[in-house]
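Note to self: keep these together.
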Amino acid sequence: MSIQSNFIKSIMETDLETKKHSEIVTRFPPEPNGFLHIGHARAIVTNFELAKSFGGKTNLRFDDTNPSKEDDIFVQNIISDIRWLGYEPDGIYYASDYFEEMYARACILIKKGLAYVDESSPEEIKDMRGTTGTKGVESPYRNRPIEESMMLFQAMKDGKKEEGSCVLRAKIDMTSPNMNMRDPVIYRISFDHHHHRGNDWVIYPMYDFAHPIEDAIEGITHSLCSLEFEDHRPLYDWVVRETEMPKVPRQIEFG
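Structure:
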């Protein structure tokens, strides 16, 4: 199957010509919480065919950061469906295998004063974020000492905090017109059994924090996603930059 010229392919061509990248690496990152449907086929074909047209690679990565909804039965079916479509991933990965590095990167944010443990209730956090027409309100925990947030985050990791009692939030801009930048929650507590890591972890990264780090770890050059994630791109870039990832992927939205 050949991919005709389009804006994504043009970006990839330019990145290779300017030596920004030496090869193209894409990924298909489903959450293993259900069976694939026809809509997923488009993402699979787009990622695999674009990478193949440049002699590049495409990874299959299971975005398994939500233990309450995920199961190995979906993992095996997703692999089978991709092969049925005629594709073989260059690598099969699990986001949960990166939990150690994600935790370390979250600690970097805390030490830089860019993340804090918030003990507000979920309802209070929602109210403080405001709306698209009103500014957000800073949490009373926003300026707690760095050492205190580090201690509490460690306590969360050690299972010493109850589920729902606290979260880790990025410290960005509560007045931003982009709701995604208003101190988003980046870690929460869950004692659910994880399909791949068992009971190793009781804190889990949120999608907007985990996804850019996963891309950076794997050396993804072009992270393709649907248009609904356009407003998430500033947060994607912020996470990659402020967690000091050595490789910098680029998120590209398409409809």
